[in-house]
Design goal:
The protein is an alpha+beta fold. It contains five helices and ten strands; from the N terminus they run βαββαβββαβββααβ. The chain is globular. The model has no long low-confidence stretch (mean pLDDT 96).
């Protein structure tokens, strides 16, 4: 049975997250609805590289599904985009080997988070960045980013609601922040992330930028494994699942 890999983008503003939820509009639900139409009423379940929460956007989410239809891999893009709503777009499709898995074969994910650092909000951008009107020390934020890179136990920077089994050790290959005019761009690249980890890290980095926490406190925060030491979780609308990489990439 053919297996199809898709890279999709979506505006998370009006979705209750990625994963299917009864009675709620989700990204997975809309994609599976389109696939059901293509398969003449047959239900097709998709597998994703991971879930995103309500309000979080996807720039390069990766999914796969198995199909009994023999359609050229690159033709699935047009077939799906014809049926999908305007806030989901299939960027690329291809046929992949039977052993490919969108979730289990991930070797790196990249998230980006955008902050609008102006006194007044931009109402036309309110669903796509976090408005933060306070003065920030970018040098302090960048210093803290360096402490976050590498392999650490990120329990302090994980939601208390996380249900992950096993340890919370993760490796971040890149943590960076740059300011372009009034906009801050945070980049997080790693082999895996805990629930709400990126948003908690952003909230903490913004507190560091305000002088509420010293950059040098990061190692102690890792050691203490206490969520109460980190800052509040930054809002969903500034977060984007930017790219997912696999060995064949």
């Amino acid at each position: 049975m053919p297996k199809i890999k898709c890279i999709i983008a979506y505006d998370g503003s009006t979705f209750h997250g990625f994963q299917v939820q009864p009675g709620k509009r989700t990204v997975q639900g809309e994609v599976e609805k389109a696939l059901e139409q293509i398969h003449k009423g047959e239900k097709v379940r998709i597998q994703a590289s991971g879930r995103t929460d309500a309000g979080v956007h996807g720039k390069g989410q990766t999914i796969h599904f198995e199909t009994g239809l023999y359609i050229p891999g690159n033709s699935w893009k047009r077939a799906l985009n014809t049926l999908l709503p305007a806030d989901i777009f299939v960027i690329e499709t291809e046929a992949v080997s039977d052993d490919f898995h969108a979730r289990y074969h991930v070797i790196e994910k990249e998230y980006r988070y955008y902050v609008l650092n102006t006194v007044d909000p931009d109402i036309f951008n309110r669903n796509y960045s976090y408005h933060f009107p306070y003065r920030l020390d970018i040098d302090a934020i960048q210093e803290a980013c360096r402490y976050l890179e590498g392999t650490h136990d990120f329990t302090t920077f994980s939601s208390a609601k996380a249900t992950v089994k096993g340890d919370r050790v993760r490796t971040l290959i890149e943590v960076s922040c740059k300011k372009d005019g009034d906009r801050l761009e945070f980049i997080f690249r790693g082999k895996g992330f805990l629930y709400n980890m990126v948003r908690i890290l952003v909230g903490t980095l913004l507190d560091i930028g305000q002088g509420r926490i010293a950059p040098t406190a990061i190692p102690m925060m890792f050691e203490q494994k206490d969520r109460q030491l980190a800052s509040k979780t930054a809002p969903a609308q500034g977060l984007y699942l930017w790219r997912v990489r696999y060995p064949e990439d």
